[in-house]
Structure formats: C-alpha cells, structure tokens
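With this grant's support, the team has encoded backbone shapes as discrete tokens. A representative record is reproduced below.
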Amino acid sequence: MAQPKLDEQHLIVRIGNRWYGIPLNYVDEVLNLVAVDDLPGAPDYVLGLISLRQRILPVLDLRVYFGHGSGELTLNTPMIALRGEAIDNAVVVVDEVDDVKVTGDSIQHQSDTAYIRGAVQLGNRLVLILNIEEITSGVVNNPMESPDA
C-alpha cells in the first residue's frame, strides 16, 4: 500500500456521519447528480452507468458501500468522477463535498484495512483517508461482481 506523500492533498467528503479524504490526484471533477442508467444484477452499491465526456463509467454509491444505507438522490447530490493510472475510472456518490486540504504531513495513523489508508485530524474532524485504488479495483472490468466475490 502506498504511503501518503508529505504534501498530498485530499478532497474532503462526508459519507453518513463520517469524513473521508479522497486523494486529489484521482479527482477528475465534482458533478451534481446526472442521469444514471440502471445496471440490472449489479451489487447494491453500483447505481449504474453514466456517459461522461464519451467515457462510460460505473457509478458507486459510497454510502451503500460503507454500510450507511442509500441516501436520497437529489439534483444536489455530489458525484465525483475519478481518473488515474493506478485506479479503475469510476464515479462515486457521497453525501457532501467540503474542501481540498493538505493532509500528507499530518497523517497520524496508517491503516492496514483494505479501504482505508490512514487517518488524520483536521481541526475538530477525524478524516479517514480512502484507498481509492482498492475501492475501484475490478468495478470497471466487472461491475456485476461484488469486490468480495
């Protein structure tokens, strides 16, 4: 698992009642809710597919993925398009997008869990740093299978 760099920046998002950091180098853009085409038979956390700038991308609801249940989808529901060489391109749905923060030099705990790289205290918030590589792995190639399959 890659160690965070000292100057690494993260997009801070809320999923349920917890705050998470998504490495900024994977964030392509933040969107408001767009039309999602259903994908019958996909795991609950895969909402479907969207077409974004001539790319077909799976949409992952991180609220369901982390066991917070599916929240209401409104026109203001944030969607984050992810792109990078080390990840499978995808779009993730969260409850709220906050801000970009430099976190690398203040990560106090490195995690050994598959989906969390570590934790950092930002003001009065404990922010869990997401392992986007692990979360998106395999979803693009086979969105019909659960990552635990």
Remarks:
- Residues 132-136 form the longest helix (5 residues).
- The chain has two helices and eleven strands.
- The first strand starts at residue 9 and ends at 15.
